[in-house]
Predict the structure.
Amino acid sequence: MPSRTPETRATSLFMRYAILVLVALIFVFPLVFMLVSSLKPSMQLLSDTSSIRAFLPVGDISLDNYTASFARAPVALFIFNSIFVTSVTVVLNLVICSMAGFSFAFLDWKGKDVMLSIVIATLIVPLETIAIPLLLVVNNLPWIGADGIEWGWLNSYRVQIVPFLSDALTVFLFVQYFRDLPRDLIEAARIDGASWFQIYAKVIMPISGPVIATAAILRFLAMYNQYLWPLMVTQSEQYRPVMVGLQYFFQLNTDWGQVMAYLSMITVPVLAFYLALQRAFITSIASTGIKG
Amino acid sequence: MASLSMKSVRKSYGAVEVIKGVDLDIADGEFVVFVGPSGCGKSTLLRMVAGLEEITAGTMEIGGRVVNDLEPKDRGIAMVFQSYALYPHKTVYDNMAFGLHIAKAPRAEVDAKVRKAAEILKLEPYLDRLPKQLSGGQRQRVAIGRAIVRNPEVFLFDEPLSNLDAALRVNTRAEIAKLHRDLGATMIYVTHDQVEAMTLADKIVVLEGGYAQQIGTPMELYHTPANLFVAGFIGSPKMNYIEVTVAGVSTDGVKVAAPDIGEALLPIDPGKAAVGDRATLGIRPEDMRHGKTDGITVSGNVELVERLGHETLVEITTTNGLDLKGIIDGTTLISLGDTTDLSFAAASCHLFDSAGKAFTRREVPEVVRARRGT
Ligand SMILES: Nc1ncnc2c1ncn2[C@@H]1O[C@H](COP(=O)(O)OP(=O)(O)OP(=O)(O)O)[C@@H](O)[C@H]1O
Ligand SMILES: [Mg+2]
């Protein structure tokens, strides 16, 4: 192979960076457009879209759109609702699905394989297909609250949480990850006298960072972006999440500046969550590895 | 400390029977090694002792107690895995302390035990490290430390040295032998390395085809193998086999005949041998001499010469197509293509009947009665 001159190496490096920068820009531009537009009055926003000005914070810049969106909708409440429902669901979902995955991967019980195929088969059933029957079910469920037993779960947090406490994809992710872990580790723990629960909690989960991070990101996005289900089950404003709240900005006259301001506000939590987990994700990958 | 006993222990995976009935008695404090070719069920048998594999049939007793249905933790055993199986997220200290924490041992006691084990294994400088920050040999010692801390009656090792390099393997082997002397615990050790088996064992169990082919001291297996399989498995290079016919049976022994060796009288108990029977004569390469010095001589064409310095491995092929290996003096002048003689004493010969079962040798070296370390 002919050795490459420093010039060609520099050129190829430049090309590689150029491509990366281009790709990054393609992903970043919509976000920049959203943030920049949220600072502009609607008229200017629309006229700017035909030029590069669409991505630049120029002209009549202010936070007016943010103030206006707070006046138009209970933004803080929506964000709180979404974050509350999403985090509770994600945490409980990870616990439940990882336990299910543990059982599928490590325990021996009759009918395990059939059960796992059924769980995985549900992957192909979209929420839309079961939304109506599910609505009928939750509408007739009892709940023991502060003032005794009540019927019907509509207009609550639980109706947005409980149906999503487990899902096939997350179970599947855990099963796959667990199956690749060395079985010796579990056997060593059994000899050390650990119960199955202790093996789950003290041996397996601490080395499952990568799959937990992956599942958490996927679950978070799915929950945070929920629209159809919360729209069906929350008639009152009090329990509505952000995506349903977006409706408030598309009535009669749509003010695009306010839409952009609202979108900017609801996007920030997602980005923060993702960046936080990404770091955990990388560290946990680095700290696993049984033998080298 | 405990003895261990297996009575017609069997193991099947579905329709496949892997262990077909093993009887074995292990005395308190004994060092027993399971050897055998890959896939013969060594690990399986060890894991049945550990309680990690269910026992399909038969009984397993540890310290006089039937353990068939006991959980691993209740059997008084500790196991060192080939992969070490250290908890990757726990420090060396916590790896060793985990079992005690689970058993809710008082903190001070845990600390004392872990530090004691660390001292024995020279792991003190590494207590705060994670497994990935250790060398292979150090990880190995942590795995042993984790076993020591449990203070088990029986230690189980599954090929513990196979991931170490040659030099470290020799060291660690010596350390395990020392550990056995110091702790006086019963140990069962699986390996496919003959040297480990010969040097460590009080008793070797040769497993093959789901059965224990022979159970005995290393010297018994070497000098009085019970059958062709054990004869071929123990010893390296492998024992030479010569197909012979029984030409005479007398109180002096068995007279055998073969084209390459003519007739020879072997000091072997005739047992049920009858004139005309087919049999196999076995002779170890290390019992061969160069030239016509010993009783039985075979001549052939030199096909292979490997000089190791202190000794030379030669292989000759006779005109009848018989291949024989010999280990001869390292200073012998010999070269490929030469015609040369290899000879051996009748007393060094083993004889096996047509089913592969050994006849009893009359002249067995005194060393067969030697125990390990004597
Ligand atoms: N879970 C299982 N299901 C079916 N067969 C199995 C199972 N585990 C082991 N076996 C079979 O049992 C036999 C013995 O396996 P084992 O692991 O005990 O061999 P081994 O003597 O330890 O071999 P090696 O020296 O390669 O470690 C093998 O033929 C293997 O294929
Ligand atoms: Mg094995």
Observations:
- The longest strand of chain B covers residues 296-307.
- Chain B touches chain A at residues 47, 50-52, 71-73, 77-79, 81-89, 98-99, 102-103, 130-132, 136, 139, 146, 150, 163 (CB under 8 Å).
